[in-house]
Amino acid sequence: VAKKGYVGIHSTGFRDFLLKPELLRAIVDCGFEHPSEVQHECIPQAILGMDVLCQAKSGMGKTAVFVITVLQQLDPVPGEVGAVVLCHTRELAYQISHEFERFSTFLGDVTTAVVFGGVNIKTQKEQLALQPPNIVVATPGRLKALAMDGTLSLKKCAHFVLDECDKMLEALDMRADVQEIFKMTPHDKQVMMFTATLSKELRALCKKFMNDPMEIFVDDETKLTLHGLVQHYIKLEESEKNRKLNDL
């Protein structure tokens, strides 16, 4: 995860977005200094509740856009799900939930849960009953199951996010799950979708979920450049990956 290397073209500080002091403090503590170009373009409109369709390369800080946007607007009510974030793999769900936890460090009353398939659903139900979440990060199939059996109510969901939306909407079974979940949320909500690749067909499909969205496309490789992004990788056997993710 890039933290310090972001320098946008018109870069200002995060404090110029007039965020909650507790949220700004967490952003600074996480080592973020300047918004990336994507963050600079998206966040000011997104925190006003506007729908967002954003396509940009990986590593440009798209995750922080929706994490900051949701936490800025969320007025947590105990036991109420105010935001849903869907993604296509458990690894990504885990990473996103970790970002929510980092950025909500000083927002004491915000609770986040991560749910995905391949884990005993009974155990998940018990955990959700013990600590009902304000924010749910999930893979579509498992969230649909938990919402349909009444474990989680999405009737008060104000923010609906798809990360790597192309992966979910191109797979027909996953798309059907996303649509079912979408129908369980209120009509009047903010919808944000993020992807690294977006075909014309998929763009049209995404917009069917949205109301006059702000669209940010970075098709031109030279338009947005990354400075100071350092990437590391660890070579692991498949069986070791989840354990190592937990350690990180």
TrEMBL record:
SUPFAM superfamilies per the UniProt record, alphabetical: P-loop containing nucleoside triphosphate hydrolases
Keywords: ATP-binding, Helicase, Hydrolase, Nucleotide-binding
Superkingdom per UniProt: Eukaryota
UniProt domain Helicase ATP-binding: residue ranges: 43-216
InterPro entries: DEAD/DEAH_box_helicase_dom, Helicase_ATP-bd, P-loop_NTPase, RNA_helicase_DEAD_Q_motif
Domain DEAD-box RNA helicase Q: 12-40
A Pfam family annotated for this UniProt entry: DEAD
Protein name: RNA helicase
Taxonomic source organism: Ostreococcus mediterraneus
